[in-house]
Amino acid sequence: MGATSRAFALFFALAASIPASFFLPTEASPKVGSTVATAELETRAFPNAPDGYTPQNTTCPSTRPTVRSASALSDNETSWLEMRRNNTIAPMQDLLGRLNISGFDAEAYITKNAKNASALPNIAIAVSGGGYRACLNGGGAVQAFDSREINSTAAGHLGGLLQSATYLAGLSGGGWLVGSIFVNNFTTVTALLDNDASSVWEFGNSIFEGPATGSIQVLDSAEYYTGIEHEVSAKGDAGFNTSVTDYWGRALSFQLVNASDGGASYTWSSIQLQESFANADSPMPILVSDGRAPGETLIPGNTTIYEFNPFEFGTWDPTTYGFVPLEFLGSNFSGGVLADSEKCVRGFDNVGYVMGTSSSLFNQFILDVNETSLSQLAKSFVSDILSRFSESDNDIAQYQPNPFYGYHKDTSRVYQEPALSLVDGGEDLENIPLHPLIQPFRHLDVIFAVDSSADTNNYWPNGTSLVATYQRSLNGTSADGGNLANGTSFPAIPDQNTFVNLGLNTRPTFFGCNSSNTSSPTPLVVYIPNSPYTYQSNISTFDPSYNTSQRDLIVENGYNVATMGNGTANSTWPVCVGCAILQRSLERTQTALPQACIQCFADFCWDGTVNSTNPANYEPTYKINNPAKKSAAIREVASCSFAAVVAMAVLAMVW
Ligand SMILES: *[C@@H]1O[C@H](CO)[C@@H](O)[C@H](O)[C@H]1NC(C)=O
Ligand SMILES: *[C@@H]1O[C@H](CO)[C@@H](O)[C@H](O)[C@H]1NC(C)=O
Ligand SMILES: *[C@@H]1O[C@H](CO)[C@@H](O)[C@H](O)[C@H]1NC(C)=O
Ligand SMILES: *[C@@H]1O[C@H](CO)[C@@H](O)[C@H](O)[C@H]1NC(C)=O
Ligand SMILES: *[C@@H]1O[C@H](CO)[C@@H](O)[C@H](O)[C@H]1NC(C)=O
Ligand SMILES: *[C@@H]1O[C@H](CO)[C@@H](O)[C@H](O)[C@H]1NC(C)=O
Ligand SMILES: *[C@@H]1O[C@H](CO)[C@@H](O)[C@H](O)[C@H]1NC(C)=O
Ligand SMILES: *[C@@H]1O[C@H](CO)[C@@H](O)[C@H](O)[C@H]1NC(C)=O
Ligand SMILES: *[C@@H]1O[C@H](CO)[C@@H](O)[C@H](O)[C@H]1NC(C)=O
Ligand SMILES: *[C@@H]1O[C@H](CO)[C@@H](O)[C@H](O)[C@H]1NC(C)=O
Ligand SMILES: *[C@@H]1O[C@H](CO)[C@@H](O)[C@H](O)[C@H]1NC(C)=O
Ligand SMILES: *[C@@H]1O[C@H](CO)[C@@H](O)[C@H](O)[C@H]1NC(C)=O
């Protein structure tokens, strides 16, 4: 529990300081119409819930939805992958060509194997949780990987990795990043940041003071506040259990989806209708959440891990071991089927609720309302809301009816539960969403794992998340007879002291270079830990005031973390990224490793050395001698903390 309560405190600290501006969609933000016809969906895709936030009974399709066993990929994913793998070929050729591995014609290699998708590299990116810090540091990394970003395809940069990737997974704060990119039509990080700052922060003020006068016109505050309460109550009135996460998710959506109505009709399953996703021009976004029964203490490594992909919700774990079509989540499945008397419920998979579920730890900040400077009246309103929920369950998201009711009775821990309870995806210490990416069915070759966790006492990562994933993959059979690893395979990972002693947490490190060390196919993990290149991005801010300069410096540092300062901190890094991409593929096609790659693996692979002595306090120094822009004038903006915004929203719910 120690780690968890510390995490609560930390997450509160971070939540207390999320700038509303980060989440605001800009020009890519779709307009929300009251009813959206199917034809319109092709261009707008998102607002397709039948009745805003309230899930509705609808007529079932001729083939009634069912829960399927996790014994294969879904047909939807399989057919999407055929397109996606093909669509990654050109970006990969382009990227590998630019990375310019000496003595190796990567373009020719890809061309030669283009007809055989299974020979080609299969890439994933995972961005960890860690609240505001993770969202921005991960944002910088994704920006660096995105060929649409200015300068990202220059020498020393890594633009095109995002376009070459099959999956992009996020969890908690990293889930806000992934969600905000996809919910806003697969936009860029720069577009998310690049608001007209003044109008954004006027929007922030308007939460308290009235409608904005800037580019984003909102309802007045009273409508906003009462709106959230009405939406959550309406969901309750329609027969669905609600939880603190409903309020949190709705408030989060106002920052994330659309300023004018908070995207009440936007569903995660509608991502499959979005043009870029439907054409497989983007990776597949996946968010992660943990199963946790009310009152239960979550045991790392013994948790059922669920995923939300655009097609389905469910788990590969041999406990529940099933997936439900996401669009019909909320339908009353029993034993995996929907009785003839049942309607097909749609609109349950609201994007804010899905993102809020993956980041449900942030519910906790509401508990600290008494520590804020809100008025006494506000505090008692919030306390009143909280009193409706049991204290120990404040981080829980209720999925009721439980789609897995009566399903897999022999192995499931939840088959008798009328409601499935989910919590923040990082609560099992696996703070990097690797679980969906190490599933054997997905055949990934390489995972770029961006870690913004706050493991050390000054909020830097120390490998804890990788250790947790590794431990879980080892437990072929666990004490209770379960077999949670269930075919997943993960590279060997040393203990955290070794991470710190060898500096594995201060620069990118490859794990699993030698695939002959594992018996089943195992992806190479490129671990990219948050560290200071141009900014001390280990922020833990109790300070309620924000400035956009700091936000931008963290994103820029994240760009430098991913690119090692565009190659300035290590000139071989870009080539070595190319080698990491290619390694498993070269092995499959029995192609000799280029000499440059042999050197890369000597430099960047963890070589199996362990030093478990207690390290001194980890206090990394700047990786780039002369951090740019340190003295840039810091523009103070209105002190409008995200926590205050949400707390105000919650308080107004009882209006
Ligand atoms: C989404 O982005 C694509 C590609 O940039 C663009 O063609 C399309 O018009 C956008 N759709 C909307 C609804 O903005
Ligand atoms: C997903 O699969 C279902 C059932 O096979 C099919 O009806 C649906 O059109 C598919 N959706 C997409 C986006 O491919
Ligand atoms: C593969 O992708 C290329 C370029 O994106 C496209 O021209 C071609 O039609 C695709 N082939 C298949 C089989 O999808
Ligand atoms: C792009 O690179 C040029 C040349 O190095 C530089 O002047 C410019 O500021 C860069 N733009 C961005 C957005 O980084
Ligand atoms: C949806 O249908 C179920 C029965 O299939 C019924 O119990 C429930 O009340 C209906 N919900 C709404 C909101 O109409
Ligand atoms: C805030 O303080 C009041 C008065 O001490 C108390 O009744 C209430 O439960 C507290 N609220 C929370 C959320 O701790
Ligand atoms: C690593 O992080 C874990 C989790 O926060 C912590 O318990 C441990 O003391 C840390 N170890 C080092 C060496 O930083
Ligand atoms: C996994 O195995 C390790 C080492 O045997 C053990 O400490 C841990 O409790 C096990 N975890 C589970 C979930 O069984
Ligand atoms: C794992 O969790 C299940 C139920 O949640 C429990 O019955 C079992 O004892 C736990 N196993 C371990 C090794 O903690
Ligand atoms: C995973 O678990 C399922 C359900 O228990 C089982 O059928 C399957 O064989 C397992 N897969 C592996 C690779 O162990
Ligand atoms: C690397 O490039 C990015 C984007 O152009 C830029 O913001 C950053 O300052 C560059 N880093 C260094 C160390 O020059
Ligand atoms: C790059 O970093 C690796 C790993 O720390 C190191 O072995 C190598 O010498 C560095 N190369 C350069 C050119 O700095």
Summarize the structure.
The chain has helices spanning 2-15, 20-23, 38-44, 75-87, 89-99, 106-113, 131-145, 161-164, 173-183, 189-193, 197-209, 221-237, 244-256, 275-278, 351-358, 364-367, 376-387, 464-474, 496-502, 548-563, 573-588, 595-604, 642-652, and strands spanning 56-58, 68-69, 123-127, 165-170, 284-291, 305-308, 312-315, 322-325, 344-346, 397-399, 420-424, 446-451, 509-511, 524-529. The chain has 655 residues and is α/β, with parallel strands linked by helices. Strand 6 and strand 7 form a beta hairpin.
Describe the structure.
- This protein is of the alpha/beta class.
- The chain has two domains: 3-624, 3-Layer(aba) Sandwich (Cytosolic phospholipase A2 catalytic domain); 626-655.
- 36% of the residues lie in helices and 9% in strands.
- Strands 2, 3, 4, 5, 6, 7, 8, 10, 11, 12, 13 and 14 form a twelve-stranded mixed β-sheet that branches. It has a two-stranded antiparallel sheet with strand order 1-9.
- Helix 7 packs across helix 9 (173-183), helix 7 (131-145) crosses helix 20 and helix 13 packs across helix 15 (351-358).
- The two termini are 36 Å apart.
- The structure holds 2-acetamido-2-deoxy-beta-D-glucopyranose (12 copies).
Secondary structure: number of strands: 14
CATH 4th-level superfamily of the largest domain: Cytosolic phospholipase A2 catalytic domain
Average residue pLDDT: 82
Alpha-carbon distance between the termini?
Answer: 36 Å
Query: Low-confidence spans: pLDDT under 50, at least 5 residues?
Result: 1-45, 196-221, 541-546, 629-655
Radius of gyration: 23 Å
What is the count of helical runs? Answer: 23
Given helix and strand content, the structural type is: alpha/beta
Give me the CATH architecture of the largest domain, please.
Answer: 3-Layer(aba) Sandwich
Write down the overall geometry: globular
Number of domains: 2
CATH class of the largest domain equals: Alpha Beta
| Distinct ligand kinds | 2-acetamido-2-deoxy-beta-D-glucopyranose
Estimated helix fraction = 25-40%
Strand-residue proportion? 5-15%
Query: What is the fold named in CATH at topology level of the largest domain?
Result: Cytosolic phospholipase A2 catalytic domain
Enzyme class: hydrolase
Region (Disordered): 46-67
GO biological process, one term: glycerophospholipid catabolic process
EC number: 3.1.1.5
